[in-house]
Amino acid sequence: MSVSIRICSAFVSWLLCSTLLSQGLPSVPACAGERARYYAMIETPRGYVSGVCLMQHDGEQLTCAIVNEFGVSALHFTYSERRDRVKIASVVPMLDHWYIKRMLRRDLRQWIHSMRQGEYTYHNTKRKITYSLSALNEDETEQEDNDNRQTP
Question: By the 8 A CB rule, do 110 and 93 touch?
């Protein structure tokens, strides 16, 4: 019986990894020192926040930051795996209200749980807010940086 459970768990792990690779998304950092970069978008009925999502695992917690296209940090938070808790370090002024930060903490926690299961989109049906990650094309980003450096 234990052999069949091991085979099933190995198959599920392979299936999740192949799904992530087919989407072109790197996995969420789970070990100390791992990093990942994504394109993130948080859409609401009234607007959206988008930018690059930078994630780093330091052994005890996952640190995430969403930086918009202009270099402004829109959202910076940490997720403690041991406590299963999100702590928001900073947000842009338009989101800096206690009731918005409380909703963000809950939604970000659910979003991280769904990312661990291979779902990179989370939808808050009550508030009609969609949190999504997509692959960040590293080659295009590096090419744009090189182009900007060469332009006088």
Answer: no
Cβ proximity of 141 and 69 under 8 Å:
no
Give the pLDDT of residue 143: 53
Report the relative pairing of strands 61-67 and 47-57 from DSSP bridges.
antiparallel
Query: Tokens 């005890």 sit at which residue?
Result: 60
Could you tell me if 88 and 101 are in contact, meaning their C-beta atoms sit under 8 angstroms apart?
A: yes
Handedness of CA 3, 30, 145, 48 (dihedral sign): positive
Distance CA 122, CA 42 (A): 10
Q: Alpha-carbon distance 20 to 65, whole Å?
A: 21
- Cα 18 from Cα 139, distance rounded (Å): 22
Q: Is 18 helix (H, G, I), strand (E, B) or coil?
A: helix
Residue stretches of the chain with pLDDT short of 50: 1-22, 151
Tally Cβ neighbours within 10 Å of residue 77: 22
CA 9 to chain centre: 25
Q: What is the pLDDT of residues 96-126, one digit of tens each?
A: 999 999 999 999 999 999 999 999 999 999 9
For the entire predicted model, the pTM comes to: 0.74
